[in-house]
Amino acid sequence: MKNQFQVRYACSPRETKELTTEGLRKEFLIQNLMEADTVNLVYTHFDRYIVGGAVPVTTSLKLTTIAPLKSDYFLERRELGIINVGGAGSVTVNGEKYPLAYKEALYIGRENKDVVFSSDNAKTPAMFYLNSTPAHKVLPTKKISQGDAEVVELGAMETANARTIRKLIVNSVVETCQVQMGMTELKTGSVWNTMPAHVHDRRMEVYFYFEIPQDQAVCHFMGQPQETRHIWMGNNEAVISPPWSIHSGSGTSNYTFIWGMAGENLDYSDMDHCKITDLK
After folding, report:
1. What is the pTM of this model?
2. Which end of the chain is more exposed for a tag (fewer CB within 10 A), N or C?
């Protein structure tokens, strides 16, 4: 069993404009999250967000604290959102077991000392995608199944952005301090997500792309609306999107992505839209 982490510092729009392709990827792209028998975490200074992956194969994995938190245990001052993007598994929280099937979610509140990840079958291991933020109060743990999600249909086939949004860990479904997570599934023949694009200075965001077919890719767009940048991404990779940045993407095939947010408020509709014709 391995537990490892990275730290990423916040970048301003001024610095980001000067980055090369390699520099852009180093600052914002998160690769190799899903490694067997490993908990991988990335701590970003944008809203103190933590992005992670846990893949229990031959053994269960315990979520332990990391040096930047200066805490006795991981959730001492934090909350945690989890979505399973692999085979069937379970998360045990202080001795209580929560089974999670593919695309099911779990919210775990502050001050839960023991969090353990397990797979039902080592041949098809669970792959737990993790998002964590600071929390100001204790809230109950809650499982969110596909049937519990708030579902929204957006876009159209004519504009190649027909998609289904499943709000899983949002304040209309489960009470949280600030973490929010959901999933957007692109329909066959559609490739654009979050288009028209938007920004929200009150919140940062992280995208995790999965269900990308073999030999296909997604081009993720970021940067200020008047000076955009792009990062090519593969399956099971995540990207940090600062509050001043748009977040959008286009794939060479349809795909699914998980969005996670934290920041000033919990209003899902709090966003400033960017006209497509104004993007540069």
Report:
1. 0.96
2. C
